[in-house]
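Researcher: We're teaching a course module on how sequence relates to structure. For the next exercise, students receive a sequence and then see the predicted structure as tokens, so they can try to spot secondary structure elements on their own. Here is the exercise chain.
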Amino acid sequence: MRTISLIILAACTFMAMEARAQAPEWTDAWDIGTDGSEFPTRIGTDARGNLYVTGYAANFPVFDPYSATGQFLGCFQPDGTELWARTVFSINPSSPCRMAIDAMGNTYLAATFINGSIMVDLGARDTLITTDSSTGLIVMSYDAGGNLRWLRTGFGADTMSVEGLAVQGSRVWLGGTFQGVAGIGGTRLQSAGGSDICIAQFDTSGTFIGAVRSGGPAGDRCNGLGADSSGDATLLGTFGGTAAFGDTSLVATSNATMVLARYRPDFSVAWARADGTPTFDPFTVILAVDRSGAGIAGLSYTGTFSVDGRTYPARSESDALVVRYGPDGRAQWEVPFGGSFMQEVDGLGTDSQGNVYVGGFSQALPDGEAFLARISRDGIRQWQATDSYANAICSTYGGPICVDSAGVIHMAGAFSGITRFGTHVIASQGSTPTSSTGWDVYVASLAQSSSVERSERAEPTAAPVALRRSGDMLVVSPAADGAELLGAELYSVLGRRAADRQRAPARGETITFDLGALPSGAYLVVARTAAGVVSLPFIHVR
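Model: And here is the predicted structure for the students to work with:
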């Protein structure tokens, strides 16, 4: 009877604590790099929880995917184990490689190149791609195993850069900035004077669908693009003078007024809006779009930013602000990140419930620190985590963010020296306790289960997995008629990882956790299946 009472009490405690947000902790950190310098541009995840990182690598004569001049793409297990890597674009890339990922792990990449040629990694060999234009555009796709699915070239422009790529359903959206004449597929675009914005579409098999121009005679720029479950795409950019976005004409308050516009699949514009002030001077402007179609803008700026009459003056050389716009274009909330020190927002991500994650840099210490913060869907800033330092030579910058299907947050960034995320210490290549050369990429993770309310968890009505005890072993197995079991994680009631993350050895096989060293208490298994994620609580009594 006493044991039953303890189990009921523990279950009640588990449910009560599960409903409260808990302070998160860094659960893992690992690095990518060589003696050169590497910087990330995007991180993403697939349904299996694998991570995909793309970025820029400096020129060093080492035969390694991360040491050639150009853009790299790597696929990793969540613990940093490399599955495959490609030096995707090398020799003459002119804009960062943009990446989008579908649920199956197919990656879609786009970049521009100059000087007439670029080297492309096709998986089995490198191929030289050429263009007759001043700037060439290349769009391609790899499957989850790193094998080339398709490659599209023959696009060119006087000058062009790719600033956004998104995949939704059967469409791939591309957003960029160009000047002069741009030829994309069979569409010829002509800028209206300065630089303009271009929006293009491909299907997921690489077939070109179409392209349109937006902007005006002044300088206009695409800074980000995202798609939502309705198939629409949201553009974030800056413009000057008078600019047209579909049938909507906007008038800028400065040379870099912010614009947000929503494009339908037929390229018509549902709405467009402008925000800013005459003194607004943006340093970084980034975008995330959640599944509902809400656009989250992250701004680092000097001067003053204004939205719907609410003004936010920068209090240092650079302040940061996050603004959530609903699918109808209305501003729903703003959350400032500012103070006496410089603040930058360099990464944004959302989870399945619309909560927002912000990654960036704060110069609160002499060399600065990376931070990762969570803002609830209704605009409440809930927590902020930072890295810490093992020595004074380290500089660490926050950057791109993704949230995997189990709710774990992964942030990529760049660091030089020796740094620490929680208990995880990492060192860039070439660093010593007193000096450092070059920059490496890091990936740091937070156990999102510690801050996701019970109502946010994806729990199917019929669990596709089952739990059973066998001595000190907890066995996680796929249900007889359930979806394929991909992996599982074990967390304590406080959201702390209680065991190493496990992957299913093969289709239909089980996953086991050793409970022998764990104290009695309430725990949670977060299992990933081909059909989604399920959370299963259980009580461990020794």
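Model: If you want an answer key for the exercise: Residues 2-11+458-540 form a domain with the Immunoglobulin-like fold (CATH 2.60.40.3080). The two ends are 16 Å apart (CA to CA).
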